[in-house]
Backbone:
């Protein structure tokens, strides 16, 4: 909550600063949104990726909560499309939502390059676009809210380097080959590990965030390497798969990186695993809606908002793990307890 | 002479996947000794089990002239159903497992009825049934299933008899049973007949619609079984476990020698096909190849395997041995040559 307040305060202070500067002046790094001022209630649209995994589901719930509850008096409706990671479908979704007359459009892009035209056309049609999570290769949007994924990878690597101060052999499990998100994280991992030359990557696999693929890959790496001192996984589900492979092989569980997924926290507690977890940033969806309200009120908004990375280790496990909730829950979120229990209660 | 060459050709065609599998094992022995560790070989077999059971179901449908793109959705439904209804305890397992299998059978029945009775194209019918099942599953669970598995279901993926994992035993039993049904029973012969030439089968007195529906029902049951094996292997149920397995199961059947038009293929070929695919993945991971090289090697080897099924090079072999090319015999007639009966 503290981090979130920090972000909101930052946005508010910058917005106030812009107002104080003068009605016609916008600070560097801010977007002038006066052209988008319109009376509430507004119709919001989201060209999304679909509830393809637990993270996406909670990400979508944050959008819904913000529009349906937090700002319920401001919005008349919320149209959501799902492209299931197909950029061509997402282009069509954006065109459809614009044609439906949405006042604000959230896009969580399936890819950076293919969506340039669709996003620019939406902006040219007078619909302000807010990018959530992944970016698009254009500057024609009003705001982009994202976690610094390279930094996330760097922090994973730095933690691992400190844990293995005498060096060691590690396995790296990344998301989807070719996705800008996964490549950013891996770039950060490589940058972080550059400071620890005595750490050697003996196995690297892209597992599409799938625990099954992570388990299969880890099982193979275990056969090829009698010694594995650490597992650097970009996400709890892949870390879960790796632990399953280690348990099947009867091998000790080395220090691991993961995220705040409840299934991971469950198995980490069960097997007393030394780990660092980084938040995946589901709540940034709510920041997008906060910004949307400001945009449609004509207030300047930051062009780029970096959502903070919250991390915790084994010693804080009991603070974040919720045994009363399903595995699909993510510990670091901004949803109220009644929504959490409704969607994640066992 | 011509008949003997034809028989040789068919034997070569049916054995190519085994040749490729053998070559892969030889190459693996040369480049990566850890590949042949017993633990690793058991890993490969265990990893092949869920997709293997699924591919056997897919093969039955393909042999009958169809295709099933709803199998991944059925797998996911079975896993999520088990987790949701049992709450992670063993109490309801004896009821819920039959229910999950019955759901698979029911979806297969819908697929088969749409295709055999309503004459919807198999590709379209199963694609949209898969979408429908996925949508309903997300709707009912709010896309947030409980995930916890009862220990009894966990036994599908972990534990075994001696060193042999339960999943591998189940895979073996399913393969033997399916092979027996296809080769030794009237139903099996009718499946081949319907896939080979539905009109001829109908004229021979085979109820084509019934055989088609039954093939999809069997596939649905096996897809649900594969779902149980997969969640047991992993230890929890998730919405997306098994994504992509629909195309993988079709690929395994084709790599194993099944013809997408129907009427030709064997369970042993599918088993070899899935082992080839799984062993190849395991090998490139053990070698720690970069992801781009992994994809190139896997794609290249599997492409080579299926490319050799095109009988061009075997025809050339025939020219070489006989000095003259024989007229190309249509595939459907080849099935008659090998004596696939109409099942009366």
Residues:
């Amino acid at each position: 909550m503290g981090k979130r307040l920090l972000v909101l305060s930052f946005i508010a202070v910058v917005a106030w600063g812009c107002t104080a500067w003068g009605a016609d002046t916008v600070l560097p790094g801010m977007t002038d949104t006066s052209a988008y001022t319109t009376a509430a209630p507004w119709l919001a649209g989201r060209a999304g990726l679909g509830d393809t995994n637990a993270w996406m589901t909670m990400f979508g719930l944050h959008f819904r909560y913000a529009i349906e509850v937090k700002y319920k008096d401001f919005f008349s409706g919320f149209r959501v499309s799902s492209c299931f990671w197909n950029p061509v479908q997402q282009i069509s979704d954006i065109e459809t939502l614009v044609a439906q007359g949405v006042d604000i459009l959230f896009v969580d892009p399936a890819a950076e390059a293919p969506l340039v035209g669709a996003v620019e056309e939406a902006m040219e049609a007078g619909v302000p676009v807010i990018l959530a999570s992944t970016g698009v290769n254009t500057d024609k949007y009003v705001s982009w809210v994202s976690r610094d994924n390279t930094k996330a990878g760097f922090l994973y690597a730095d933690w691992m380097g400190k844990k293995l101060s005498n060096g060691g052999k590690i396995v790296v499990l990344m998301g989807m080959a070719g996705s800008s998100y996964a490549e950013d994280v891996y770039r950060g991992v490589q940058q972080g590990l550059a400071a620890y030359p005595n750490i050697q990557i003996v196995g690297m696999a892209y597992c599409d965030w799938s625990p099954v693929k992570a388990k299969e890959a880890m099982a193979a790496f275990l056969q090829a390497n009698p010694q594995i001192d650490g597992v650097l996984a970009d996400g709890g589900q892949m870390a879960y798969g790796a632990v399953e492979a280690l348990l099947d092989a009867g091998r000790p569980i080395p220090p691991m990186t993961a995220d705040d997924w409840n299934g991971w926290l469950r198995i980490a507690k069960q097997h007393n695993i030394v780990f660092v977890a980084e938040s995946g940033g589901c709540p940034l969806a709510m920041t997008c809606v906060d910004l949307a309200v400001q945009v449609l009120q004509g207030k300047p908004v930051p062009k780029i908002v970096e959502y903070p990375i919250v991390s915790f280790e084994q010693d804080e496990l009991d603070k974040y793990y919720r045994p009363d909730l399903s595995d699909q829950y993510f510990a670091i979120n901004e949803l109220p307890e009644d929504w959490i229990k409704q969607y994640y209660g066992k | 002479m011509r008949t003997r060459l034809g028989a040789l050709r068919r034997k070569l065609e049916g054995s190519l996947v085994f040749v490729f599998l053998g070559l892969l094992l030889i190459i693996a022995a040369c480049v990566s000794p850890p590949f042949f560790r017993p633990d690793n070989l058991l890993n490969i077999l265990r990893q092949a089990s869920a997709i293997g059971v699924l591919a056997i179901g897919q093969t039955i449908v393909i042999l009958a002239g169809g295709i099933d793109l709803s199998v991944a959705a059925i797998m996911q439904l079975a896993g999520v159903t088990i987790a949701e209804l049992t709450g992670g305890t063993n109490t309801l397992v004896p009821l819920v497992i039959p229910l999950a299998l019955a759901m698979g059978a029911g979806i297969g029945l819908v697929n088969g009825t749409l295709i055999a009775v309503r004459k919807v194209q198999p590709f379209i019918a199963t694609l949209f049934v898969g979408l429908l099942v996925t949508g309903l599953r997300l709707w009912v669970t709010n896309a947030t299933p409980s995930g916890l598995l009862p220990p009894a279901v966990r036994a599908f993926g972990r534990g075994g008899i001696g060193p042999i994992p339960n999943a591998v035993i189940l895979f073996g039993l399913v393969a033997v049973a399916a092979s027996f049904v296809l080769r030794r029973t009237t139903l099996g012969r009718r499946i081949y007949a319907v896939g080979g030439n539905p009109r001829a089968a109908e004229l021979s007195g085979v109820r084509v619609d019934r055989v088609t529906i039954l093939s999809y029902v069997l596939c649905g049951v096996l897809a649900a079984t594969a779902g149980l094996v997969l969640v047991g292997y992993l230890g929890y149920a998730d919405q997306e476990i098994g994504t992509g397995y629909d195309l993988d199961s079709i690929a395994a059947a084709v790599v194993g020698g099944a013809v997408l038009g129907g009427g030709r293929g064997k369970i042993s070929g599918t088993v070899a096909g899935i082992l080839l695919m799984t062993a190849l993945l395991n090998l490139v991971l053990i070698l720690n190849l970069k992801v781009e090289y992994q994809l190139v090697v896997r794609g290249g080897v599997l492409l080579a395997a299926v490319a050799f099924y095109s009988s061009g090079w075997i025809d050339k072999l025939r020219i070489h041995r006989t000095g003259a090319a024989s007229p190309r015999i249509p595939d459907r007639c080849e099935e008659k040559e090998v004596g696939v009966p109409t099942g009366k």
Notes: The first strand of chain A starts at residue 30 and ends at 31. Chain A touches chain B through 37 residues (CB under 8 Å). The mean pLDDT of chain A is 91. Chain A has two domains: 2-141+281-309, 149-278.
